[in-house]
């Protein structure tokens, strides 16, 4: 099987649990280190799917890799090669598909509940009974739902937490988190947490790490559903 291409935009925001998920299931993957200057592939024919991780930059920044990534996403969707986006990755998907990205009403850092939309698309991805779950967040911007896509989740702090268009899933939240990632982000992002503490959706490092193992385990039960659905669209 052709590998899944995982695009890293920052050395601190690697594939996390998603790489573990693929490894356990024997699915090959290849890391594309855009943060180290690796070139954006010109086409999608050598990959079974494309996955875009997070990053501290904005999709509206003038960075040399953003325009080629947006074009690559459009090529993948057109060729039925499934695309998956986490946070910045979801924002890249929205912009590539005709949506827009701008400042969220509040900054979200830490754990927060997500409400699952009541529509057929959400049920297809989450199952018929899931109504809400807790996920991890770290963002100040958010996306609109692009034309032709369907909103499948949101919350009171960020209306659009996820959308689907066919076999493609864009998420605002960080479903890929591990204990190691959370620990490192709390350390490297300590100043950002301190600057943003006025936001009602920003938690302290102590709050974030409280019962972290149990929260990650619960989130993974939901994440596995989403990843299980996504991998059914992989091209052989």
Keywords, please?
9-stranded mixed β-sheet; single chain; Rossmann fold; 33% helix; 236 residues; alpha/beta
Overview of the structural elements:
The chain has 236 residues and is of the alpha/beta class. It has one domain (4-231): Class I glutamine amidotransferase (GATase) domain (Rossmann fold, 3-Layer(aba) Sandwich). The protein is built from 8 helices and 9 strands. The chain has a 9-stranded mixed β-sheet with strand order 2-1-3-4-9-8-7-5-6, sandwiched between helices. Helix 1 links the parallel strand 1 (4-8) and strand 2. The radius of gyration is 16 Å and the shape is globular. The mean pLDDT is 97.
Which structural category fits the helices and strands? alpha/beta
Mean pLDDT comes to 97
Question: What's the level 1 CATH class?
Answer: Alpha Beta
* CATH homologous superfamily designation: Class I glutamine amidotransferase (GATase) domain
Output the strand order for the largest sheet.
2-1-3-4-9-8-7-5-6
Count of domains: 1
Distance between the termini: 5 Å
CATH fold label: Rossmann fold
> Taking Cα atoms only, what radius of gyration do you get, to the nearest Å?
16 Å
- How many strand elements? 9
Number of helices: 8
Which word captures the global form? Answer: globular
Give the strand content.
25-35%
* Helix percentage range: 25-40%
Largest sheet: 9 strands, mixed
What are the segments in which pLDDT stays under 50 over at least 5 consecutive residues? none
